Amino acid sequence: MTDPFLLSLILIIALALSGLSIGLAMICGSTLYLILKGFDPSIAAETLLQGLFNSYTLLAIPLFILAADIMNVGSLADRLLRFCQALVGRFRGGLGHVNVVSSLIFSGMSGSAVADAVGMGRIIIGMMTKDGKYTASYSAAITAATATIGPIIPPSIPMVLYALVSDQSIGYLFAAGMAPGLLMGLVLAVMNTVIARRRNFPVDDSVPLSEMPNVTVQAFPALMLPVILLGGIYGGIMTPTEAAAVAAFYALVISVVVYRSVSAGQFYSTLLNSARSTATVGILIAGALTFNYVITRENVPNSIADFMAQFELSKWGFLLAINVLFLALGCIIEAGAILLIIAPIFIPTAQALGIDLVHFGVVVVVNAMLGLITPPYGLLLFIVANITKQPLARVVRDLVPFIIALFAALAFITFVPDFVLFLPRMLGYTG
């Protein structure tokens, strides 16, 4: 008789390939497993509801999504870009640097790579392609690459998902992402400089220094959002979930009261878009919770740990294998599925090898984000290609140098854990 677990996997893959969302596919596969094993199928619903209702941290996800959507519909992105242009736009390839810096700042607000690419990215691509200063494919490539920083620098929706499956502190995970996010921004800026000189990109029109104070004042309310969020979290004033609510409320107040750039109709549309995005993530989480129950029943994590123990891998060998595996999976599986389904399977092995789970979480999230720019799945590739109306192959060609730079950053993040953990330790983490 065919193994029920194998049949459930086959059903999940078949449904996913047929176009059904991976979350619904996992719910169907898990239900089939329960039926074949003779269990009450209502266990799937019970597991799903318990997982959703017992996890207070999940509330952060819809709130961060709402905050990002409000910032995109308002004029925050325009004012932040003007500030970034004044800051770094005067160098050769300046708008490429503006792209990097704006992603670093915007990532401290949205926690989403897609929000970064769709909101800030759409505007900066228009600036870069205006008057033919930069090719559309290069503008798309660097925008996709910089958008991967969004979920690394806190706040971060993927970090919340990892905290859900690993039982680690969201606050410490947020802190651990700060230095790696800045490193990713640095290597992208260096690569942009190299390419700008090689291709002789123009020196863009710079904002006079005399206008810098006025530009800073205009952007100051938006620039304060990351300060309020991170200061509140690490100052013990609010939890990450409460910080997400503050982010959404603050973005709304700035956009409506201070900048007066969001109408009632736009706000209503923003709520609808946020609800749709939340529902998409929610279905994925629900599917992962039910399928994780199946994985636990089958003792898959311990079986994999026993299997890998045969190879007598050191923790560095294990981390190298994880990078190779997750980068490969990122080419075909969406980031949320990797974090919610694949990562938990390897957590027991990581613990057995003495790998810090906060460090492991950052490595996993960075891998998942790089999967967003690796073909054939690469969601960010499709987004920027659609914005610029460029063939995907042309965007990928210009993206390759940035992928190489990000791989170098990933290697450093993986094999120098103290670089990742020094900030959490300063904040009281004892791992």
Describe this structure in words.
With 431 residues, the protein is mainly α. The chain has one domain (58-287, 300-426). Helix content is 77%, strand content 0%. The protein has 20 helices and no strands. It has helices spanning 4-17, 22-36, 42-53, 60-73, 76-88, 94-110, 113-129, 136-147, 157-166, 170-199, 212-234, 240-258, 264-297, 300-309, 315-330, 335-352, 357-370, 379-388, 392-415, 417-426. Helix 6 (94-110) packs parallel to helix 8. The longest helix has 34 residues, at 264-297. It comes from Roseibium aggregatum. Residues 9-418 form the TRAP C4-dicarboxylate transport system permease DctM subunit domain. The chain crosses the membrane at residues 7-36, 56-77, 98-125, 137-165, 172-195, 215-237, 244-262, 274-295, 316-347, 359-387, 399-423. It is found in: Cell inner membrane. Its main location: membrane.
Percentage of residues in helical conformation: over 70%
Beta-strand residue fraction: under 5%
Count of folded domains? 1
The DSSP helix count reads 20
Query: What's the mean pLDDT score?
Result: 82
The major β-sheet equals: none
Q: Sketch the topology as an H/E string, one letter per element.
A: HHHHHHHHHHHHHHHHHHHH
What is the radius of gyration?
A: 22 Å
Molecular shape: globular
Number of strands: 0
Distance between the termini: 46 Å
Question: Helices and strands: which structural class?
Answer: mainly alpha
Low-confidence stretches: none
Oligomer: single chain
Domain TRAP C4-dicarboxylate transport system permease DctM subunit: 9-418
Subunit structure: The complex comprises the extracytoplasmic solute receptor protein and the two transmembrane proteins.
InterPro entries: DctM, TRAP_DctM
Membrane topology: Multi-pass membrane protein
